[in-house]
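stuck on this one:
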Amino acid sequence: MENFNRNGGLTMVPMPGFSGMAANVKILIEKEGKHTPVDIVPPQFGKRANGEPYIKLGKDHIGGHDCVVITSGPGTYEMLGQLHLLLGYLVGRRAARITLVSGYLPLCRSDKDEGALEFAIGGHTIHMIECAAHGKLDRIISVDLHAPQTVQAASHMGVITEISLARRLLAFTVEAARHVQEEICLLLPDDGAAKRFEEPIIQFMKRSGIRLPIIYGVKRRSDSQTSKFLRLSGDTDKLVGSIVIGLDDEVATGGTNRHTAEAVKNQYGAKSYWAVAVHGVLCENAPIELNSPTSPIDRIVVTDTLPIDERAELAALRQSGRLQVVSWAPDLAHLIFYHHWDMSIREIR
């Protein structure tokens, strides 16, 4: 295998807050001795005196290279604006190929209309990203999408590729829980989670030989911000004295998890509740409320698809031991390497 392939040399272009992740991934790719040198070119964003944005990005390691943009959501105005400018610059600097890796896809929660005043804008955001890349965007890679239909939002098939970290996250959490006690239950909070994580759970149980009772929750969502816990079904008799692992794609405000934790403890006799999610959005008052001594949630386990180290508001929650983070850097290194050499990236499932 030669150092450069038909797509050019491999260059990672980290958005603000992702330089640390890019540095870790570079080490992992090059450490494996796969003869794939990795360049890192961080763009410089700023604002002029009148408030207009600008970006500084030269051609070195961009022109003729296989450029992988590292970013994540949530898709704020600033983040999306910077991303669109960056994609345009990569095209202008003659990148041979452009790939967008967004652990948490921008605006992935906006997957349905919210009544008379709000449209579903996830698809529109994807089209804006494609337009900004002027036809040079080869692929968008994202992790555990909130809505599976999001892969259909691109202009043609194969643009959006979904990767799942659920199995590895579950393996980490179960191992940690078994160090505490043997009685463990899995809880899937709604139909969406049941469909999304059924395959990873089956794979985990087959590979580990561990069989865990599964509890199914029922909740109703009135809009993208508000949901209500209703009831549980399944092996609910196993909840007594157990560590309950509530598995979902994301934890945002933590409201649903709090209600579920209170129910499994007060109504079903569970010993503790661990909120486990791929994406640690942890917004609004979640960092403070989850770290409160009165919180019914005993532990939160997430990956770092959204950067955790950069967020000062989560420092106390991590120091208390309530928040544990599973890095997805090894998976990211794997998929970037495989994508660079035009091999299947779905194998990390």
Q: What stands out?
A: The first strand starts at residue 10 and ends at 14. The radius of gyration is 21 Å. The chain has two domains: 10-164+329-348, 166-326. The CA atoms of residues 13 and 41 lie 5 Å apart.
